[in-house]
Design a protein that fits this description.
The complex is a heterodimer of chains A (598) and B (379). Chain A has 598 residues and is α/β, with parallel strands linked by helices. Chain A is built from 19 helices and 24 strands. Chain A folds into 3 domains: 218 residues, 3-Layer(aba) Sandwich (Rossmann fold), CATH 3.40.50.300; 85 residues, Alpha-Beta Plaits; 247 residues, Rossmann fold, CATH 3.40.50. In chain A, a hairpin with a 2-residue loop joins strand 15 and strand 16. In chain A, helix 2 runs parallel beside helix 4, helix 4 packs parallel to helix 5 and helix 13 crosses helix 14. The longest helix of chain A has 16 residues. Chain A starts with 12 loop residues before the first strand and ends with a helix. Chain B is mostly helical. Chain B has 14 helices and 4 strands. Chain B starts with a helix and ends in a 6-residue tail after the last helix. In chain B, helix 7 packs parallel to helix 10. Classes of the chains: A alpha/beta (598), B mainly alpha (379). At the A-B interface, strand 6, helix 2 and helix 4 of A face helix 1 and helix 8 of B.
Chain lengths: 598, 379
C-alpha cells in the first residue's frame, strides 16, 4: 500500500485559501482568473474541484503547487505559505498537469526512472516501489513501451504513477479523466480511493458533474469564485424534491422539453432518454402532466419524482446567482428555412456509411464502421479520445478520403465528389475555428463568403445570425474578446450561414458551463425540429441522452448502435435496475475487450 | 538530510535529467537532423557548391589590328585558368556579347596598340566590365589588370626594354595564397553549425517541454533551477562540440583547408562560443514557451546574424559603419575571426585573445541572464 507520510502540523486542513486573487495579462487584456477566492481542503479523502473551463480550476491548482504566485490573499498549503516558501512544498505536494507531464519519447520504465531520480528515491528501494506502482496501475506489461504509444487511460495512469514515485501528502490532479474511456476513469477512481484510504489528501479537478457526486467534498468554482462548497449530499439538499420526470413519445421529446421549460417555476427541462426531466425553482409547484403534454391521452396523474443530481444543484446555483437573462430560443422564429418539401421525405437516410475504414500506416483509425442517419435525426458518436470519432467525422465532412468502404452523404458519394457534399453541410469544431482578431461581423462575412454567399443573401443571413444568436450588441467585438459561450454561439452561427442540411458538431460543448450547454442544446433541438440532421460527438454522457441514437466507437470499431434507452436496457441487471449510460458504456467495452483481446 | 545525502540526491537528479535528455536526443529525428545532418549538408554546400572565386571568366578580346604583340597578349589570356577568352574583330560585336551576358568583360586593343607599346607613355588597353554584380566586377577587373601587368613584365624581360606602365604593384596574398574562398568559408561554417545546435536546437527543446506540459511536472519536483539548466546545457554542449569536431575533420580531410594553429586553442575557444550560444538559446526559450515562436526568434537573432554579420561571408570592414557597430553584439563575429585565424594563420594571440575575452563575456552574460530569468514558476 502506498501510504502518505505522517501528518503535518495543522490537523484537518491541508489547503487554506483566503481572499485569493490572480490575474493574467496586462492592460485591457488583463483577465481575472481568481477573484477573492476563499476555500479550504480537508485532510484525507477526495476533494472535487468542479467547474467549467475558465472557472479557475487550473490556476488554483497551480497556486497550491507553488507554480504561480497569488496577486493578493494568503494561501497556506500543509501549513506552509505557498507564496513565500514554495520550495518547501517540493516533494510534499504531487501535481499531475492536464497532459500528465510525461515524456512521450521515453518508455514507461524510463519515465518512472526519471521521476525516481528527481525525487531522490534510493536505488535499493526502486525495484519494490516500481513493482508496487505497476501492480497498482496495471502498467506491468508495458515497461518498455514508449509513453507516447500508450492509450489515453494508460498515459493517465503512468502520469499518476510518476507523481506517486515519492508519495506526496497532498496530490493535485488536474482534469485527469478528460478524454479517457469510462473503464479507465473508473480504474483511476479506484486507485485514488486506495490512496486516500492510505491517508493521502487528493484534489481532483473536473468538469464532469457525475464525478463531483462521488467526491468526499466538493468546491464548485465559477468565474474565479467559489459558488458553493461542502459534501455532495449537502449541496444536493437544496434541490432535493425539486426534480421530476415524465415519459414522452420519442418523436415529441424535444418539443415537450421546450414547452416544459417555458412553464412558470421550471428552472430546467432536459431530455433524458425517453423521458423529459424537469427541475423546479425553490418552492414552485410541479406542473401537471397535462400542462406539459396537452394533446396526449392516458397521462399519469403527476410527474414522477426523481433523485437530485449534482448538475441540478449546479444549475440551481447558477440561476440563483446570475441575473443573466438569456433570450429564450425558439426555432419557429429562428429564420432557419426548414428543409424544402421535396427533400424532406422524413425517412430517407442522409448519411449512409458501409464498412468505412481509414488506415494510417499500420494503424486502423476507423475499422469497418457502418451506420445510417435519417433526416432530422440527432445522432451522437461516443468514445474515448483516439477511438476514431474525429477521423470518422473528417471523412464524413469530405476532409479525409476513406481508405476503403462506401460513404454517401445526402446521396453524394464522398469518394467521387466530396466538394459538392461539403457545400451542403456545416461543421463546428471544439476549437470553434474562429479568427480571433476579426470582429463578430467580419468572422460572419468571411465564413459567408467562404460558403459562396454574396450580396443581399449574405447580408440577410448575417442579419439572421446576429439576431438569432443574440450577437447584435457584440458585433464590433473581436472574437478573442468574447466569453466562451458567445464564441460558441458565433461558431454555430457561422456554421449555419449557408443553411446546411447536416450539421457536424465535434465536441461543441466541452468546457462550457451547464447553463450555456443547455442554451446550446436548445438551439440544436430547434434545428433538428426544422429538419436539419445533427451529428455530434461529446464527452458528457448526460448530453448523449439528448440524442435520438448513439453509436459507440472504441478502438476504431463501432461496438454498439441504438437509442440511449435501448443501450441502457441491454445492461439492466437485478442489482442494477436503472443503469446509467456510463454503466452501459463500461459493460459494452468490457464485453468488447473479452471478444477482442488487445 | 546530511550534507552527503543532499549532494547524493543532487547528483541523482542531475543524472536523471541528463539521461532523459540524451534519450530524447537519440529518439527525436529532428534533433539528429539539426545536429548531424544539417552540418554535413551545409559543409558540402559551401565547400563544393558556393565559390566566391572567379574562374574561367568569359572575356571578349577585341583586336582591332592584329600584330605579333597582340597575338602574344591574347595568347596569355588563352593560357590563363581565370579566363575563357573569345576573339572579336570589332567593338560592336563584343559589346553586344556583353549586353547579352555572353561575356563578363571586354578587353579592347586599339589599332595603335603595337605602335604605342614601346613608346614613352605605353599602350593603353580598354576594359569594359559588367558591373551588375559589383563584387564579381571588381574581381574580374583585378584579374584582367593582373594579367595585363604580367604580360608587360614578360615582354619587358624578353625584349630587355623597360616598358612604361602606370603603376607597378607587386602583391602577395598571405595566409590563403591560392585565394580559395573555400579556405575561409569552411572554417566560418563551424560557427554557423554551432549556432544552430547551441541556440536553435536548445531553444526548441526547452520550448517543447513547456508546450507538452512536462516542464510543469518537473517544476513541482525537488529539482533546482541550476540542475534544470545544467541538464540542458551539458547534453547540447557535448552535441555542439561534436558538430565542431565533425566540421573540423571534414574541413581538413575533405576540403584540404590548411590548419596552422593548435587544436587545443580551437577547442577552448569553441567551448566559449558554444556556452554563449547555449545561453542565447536558453534565454530565448524562457521568453517564448512555444516551439514555433522560439524557433523564429532563434533564427532571427542568432542564426541570420551569424550568417550575415559575422564576417563569415561578407567582410565586416566593408560594411557601413553603423552595421559594423551592430556586429559587435554578435558572438559569431568573434568566433569566426578566431576560427579563420587558427585555420589559416595559426595561433595569432593578438587576434585570438581579445576575441576569446569577448566570447567569455557574452557567455557569462547570457548564461547569467538565463539563470536569473528561470524561476521555478510558470510566469
Amino acid at each position: 500500500m502506498i501510504a502518505a507520510p505522517a501528518a503535518s502540523p495543522i490537523e484537518g486542513v491541508v489547503v487554506e485559501a483566503v481572499d485569493l486573487h490572480k490575474s493574467f495579462g496586462a492592460g485591457p487584456a488583463r483577465v481575472a482568473a481568481l477573484r477573492a477566492l476563499g476555500a479550504s481542503v480537508h485532510r484525507g479523502g477526495i476533494t472535487g474541484l468542479v467547474g467549467p473551463d475558465g472557472a479557475g480550476k487550473t490556476t488554483f491548482l497551480r497556486l497550491v503547487a507553488g507554480l504561480l504566485l497569488p496577486d493578493a490573499g494568503t494561501l497556506r498549503v500543509l501549513g506552509i505559505d505557498a507564496a513565500e516558501e514554495a520550495e518547501r512544498l517540493r516533494g510534499r505536494v504531487g501535481y499531475m498537469p492536464q497532459r500528465f507531464g510525461l515524456y512521450e519519447d521515453l518508455s514507461v520504465a524510463e519515465n518512472l526512472d526519471l521521476y525516481a531520480d528527481l525525487y531522490g528515491l534510493p536505488p535499493t528501494e526502486r525495484e519494490s516501489r516500481f513493482a508496487e506502482l505497476k501492480e497498482f496501475t496495471g502498467l506491468g506489461p508495458f515497461g518498455s513501451r514508449l509513453a507516447g504509444r500508450l492509450s489515453g487511460g494508460m498515459k493517465q495512469k503512468l502520469g499518476l504513477a510518476c507523481t506517486l514515485v515519492h508519495p506526496p501528502e497532498l496530490l493535485l490532479l488536474d482534469e485527469p479523466s478528460v478524454g479517457v474511456d469510462p473503464i479507465s476513469r473508473r480504474e483511476l477512481w479506484q486507485i485514488v480511493l486506495r490512496l486516500t484510504s492510505g491517508g493521502m489528501s487528493v484534489v481532483w479537478s473536473t468538469a464532469y458533474q457525475d464525478e463531483a457526486e462521488r467526491c468526499d467534498e466538493v468546491i464548485v468554482l465559477h468565474e474565479g469564485q467559489v459558488l458553493a462548497a461542502g459534501r455532495p449530499a449537502e449541496l444536493l439538499e437544496p434541490v432535493r424534491g425539486r426534480g421530476f420526470a415524465l415519459a414522452v413519445p420519442p418523436a415529441q421529446r424535444r418539443r415537450v422539453a421546450r414547452r416544459a421549460k417555458s412553464l412558470p417555476g421550471v428552472l430546467d427541462a432536459v431530455v433524458q432518454g425517453s423521458r423529459v426531466r424537469v427541475l423546479m425553482a425553490d418552492g414552485a409547484r410541479c406542473p401537471e402532466p397535462r400542462e406539459i403534454l396537452p394533446e396526449a391521452d392516458g397521462l399519469p396523474d403527476r410527474l414522477a419524482p426523481v433523485a437530485p443530481r449534482f448538475e441540478d444543484a449546479f444549475v440551481a446555483l447558477l440561476h440563483e446567482r446570475t441575473s443573466r437573462m438569456t433570450p429564450p430560443v425558439s426555432t419557429a422564429d429562428s429564420g432557419f428555412a426548414p428543409v424544402s418539401a421535396e427533400r424532406a421525405s422524413r425517412d430517407d437516410a442522409v448519411i449512409e456509411i458501409r464498412d468505412l475504414t481509414r488506415v494510417f500506416g499500420d494503424f486502423r483509425a476507423v475499422d469497418r464502421v457502418s451506420f445510417e442517419v435519417a433526416r432530422g435525426e440527432v445522432f451522437g458518436l461516443l468514445g474515448p479520445n483516439g477511438a476514431g470519432k474525429s477521423t470518422t467525422f473528417r471523412m464524413l465532412c469530405g476532409l479525409l478520403p476513406p481508405s476503403s468502404g462506401a460513404a454517401r452523404v445526402l446521396g453524394i458519394d464522398l469518394r467521387r465528389s466530396a466538394p459538392r457534399a461539403r457545400a451542403r453541410i456545416g461543421y463546428m469544431s471544439q476549437k470553434f475555428s474562429l479568427y480571433g482578431v476579426l470582429s463578430v461581423e467580419q468572422n460572419l462575412r468571411f465564413f459567408g463568403s467562404a460558403y459562396g454567399l454574396g450580396g443581399a443573401r449574405q447580408r440577410a443571413r448575417i442579419a439572421w445570425a446576429l439576431e438569432a444568436f443574440g450577437l447584435g450588441p457584440l458585433v464590433e467585438r473581436t472574437s478573442d474578446d468574447l466569453p466562451l459561450g458567445f464564441k460558441q454561439r458565433l461558431a454555430l452561427g457561422a456554421a449555419l450561414l449557408h443553411e446546411p442540411e447536416i450539421l457536424f458538431l465535434d465536441e461543441p460543448t466541452s468546457g462550457v458551463d451547464p447553463l450555456t450547454r443547455r442554451e446550446f442544446w436548445d438551439r440544436i433541438n430547434g434545428l433538428a425540429e426544422a429538419g436539419v440532421t445533427v451529428m455530434v460527438t461529446t464527452h458528457f454522457l448526460d448530453e448523449a441522452e439528448y440524442c435520438d441514437r448513439l453509436g459507440i466507437i472504441y478502438r476504431g470499431q463501432l461496438i454498439a448502435l441504438g437509442s440511449p434507452d435501448e443501450l441502457k436496457q441491454r445492461y439492466r441487471t437485478p442489482d442494477r435496475p436503472d443503469p446509467t449510460l456510463d454503466d452501459a458504456f463500461v459493460a459494452l467495452i468490457e464485453a468488447h475487450e473479452q471478444e477482442h483481446p488487445q | 538530510m546530511n550534507a552527503h545525502g543532499r549532494a547524493g540526491a543532487r547528483r541523482m537528479r542531475l543524472r536523471g535529467l541528463l539521461r532523459k535528455e540524451v534519450l530524447q536526443i537519440l529518439r527525436d529525428p529532428s534533433s539528429i537532423a539539426i545536429a548531424f545532418v544539417l552540418p554535413v549538408v551545409l559543409l558540402l554546400l559551401f565547400g563544393y557548391g558556393i565559390s566566391l572565386d572567379a574562374r574561367k571568366v568569359p572575356v571578349a578580346l577585341v583586336v582591332e589590328s592584329p600584330t605579333a604583340e597582340t597575338a602574344s597578349f591574347t595568347a596569355s589570356f588563352f593560357h590563363s585558368p581565370y579566363f575563357e577568352p573569345r576573339a572579336h574583330f570589332d567593338r560592336r560585336g563584343a559589346e553586344e556579347a556583353l549586353f547579352d551576358g555572353d561575356v563578363a568583360a571586354v578587353v579592347v586593343l586599339r589599332s595603335d596598340f603595337s605602335r604605342r607599346l614601346y613608346g614613352p607613355r605605353g599602350a593603353p588597353i580598354q576594359v569594359l566590365v559588367n558591373g551588375t554584380d559589383a563584387n564579381t566586377a571588381r574581381l574580374i577587373s583585378g584579374y584582367i589588370d593582373g594579367a595585363w601587368r604580367a604580360w608587360l613584365d614578360q615582354v619587358a624581360r624578353d625584349s630587355g626594354i623597360r616598358l612604361a606602365a602606370p603603376v607597378t604593384i607587386e602583391s602577395r596574398v598571405w595566409f590563403n595564397a591560392a585565394v580559395r574562398s573555400r579556405n575561409f568559408l569552411v572554417p566560418g561554417l563551424i560557427a554557423i553549425i554551432m549556432t544552430l545546435i547551441g541556440a536553435l536546437l536548445t531553444a526548441l527543446v526547452v520550448a517543447r517541454e513547456w508546450e507538452r506540459g512536462t516542464m510543469e511536472a518537473l517544476l513541482v519536483t525537488p529539482v533546482t533551477t541550476s540542475e534544470l539548466l545544467l541538464g540542458k546545457v551539458v547534453p547540447y554542449f557535448v552535441l555542439g562540440m561534436g558538430g565542431m569536431a565533425l566540421s573540423v575533420v571534414m574541413a581538413i580531410a575533405l576540403f584540404d583547408v590548411p590548419f596552422r594553429g593548435s587544436f587545443l586553442v580551437l577547442t577552448l575557444s569553441s567551448a566559449l562560443f558554444l556556452l554563449a550560444a547555449l545561453g542565447m538559446g536558453l534565454l530565448i526559450s524562457t521568453v517564448s514557451k512555444n516551439q514555433f515562436v522560439a524557433g523564429q526568434i532563434a533564427i532571427i537573432v542568432t542564426f541570420l546574424p551569424a550568417f550575415i554579420l559575422s564576417g563569415f561571408i561578407f567582410d565586416i570592414e566593408s560594411m557601413p559603419r553603423a552595421v559594423q557597430w551592430i556586429t559587435h553584439v554578435i558572438a559569431a563575429r568573434y568566433f569566426v575571426a578566431i576560427v579563420q585565424t587558427i585555420f589559416l594563420a595559426g595561433n595569432v594571440w593578438s587576434v585570438i585573445v581579445p576575441n576569446a575575452l569577448a566570447l567569455a563575456a557574452m557567455a557569462v552574460f547570457f548564461l547569467g541572464m538565463t539563470r536569473r530569468r528561470t524561476l521555478k514558476r510558470l510566469e
